[in-house]
Design goal:
The protein is α+β, with helices and mostly antiparallel strands. Helix content is 42%, strand content 24%. It is built from 6 helices and 5 strands, in the order H-H-E-H-E-E-E-H-E-H-H. A 5-stranded antiparallel sheet has the order 1-2-3-4-5. It is globular.
């Protein structure tokens, strides 16, 4: 499985590894990683915004932004089933700030728990199919 192979990559064992591990172990529709932490010789903007990941999950009905901006760790969520131009969508935003990566990872794990369980089940089914072949 592609995600498991990515998880083994030394690239993802550098910065923010706990966050990436959670994302790779969850059943998510879309992961868009616009992070700059891995860029050599980053510009001032890239230094100030090293982490920027957008995740979508139909299981929990959320769009999730995982960011570090000017030293501030934050997770922002919004409901996925609403029109992005609607007032309801913007009112569905929830923001949470964190003191450190450990605190952020714990919150993200709780938030993604149904997705992680879904992926674990999918992985078990995949392994059973592999054994049959």
């Amino acid at each position: 499985m592609r995600r498991l192979e990515l998880l083994q990559s030394p690239f993802y064992k550098q910065k923010f590894k706990n966050i990436y591990q959670l994302l790779f172990k969850a059943d998510l529709e879309d992961i868009t990683d616009c992070s700059y932490w891995h860029i050599k010789n980053p510009s001032i903007v890239e230094k100030n915004q090293p982490l920027w990941i957008i995740v979508e999950s139909k299981i929990i009905n959320k769009r999730i932004w995982i960011t570090k901006n000017c030293g501030e760790l934050k997770i922002t969520t919004a409901r996925l089933d609403l029109d992005i131009d609607s007032r309801e969508y913007h009112e569905s935003y929830e923001r949470k700030k964190f003191k450190n990566q450990s605190e952020m990872s714990s919150y993200l794990e709780q938030l993604l728990e149904p997705c992680i369980k879904g992926y674990e089940q999918e992985l078990k089914e995949w392994e059973m199919e592999e054994e049959r072949e």
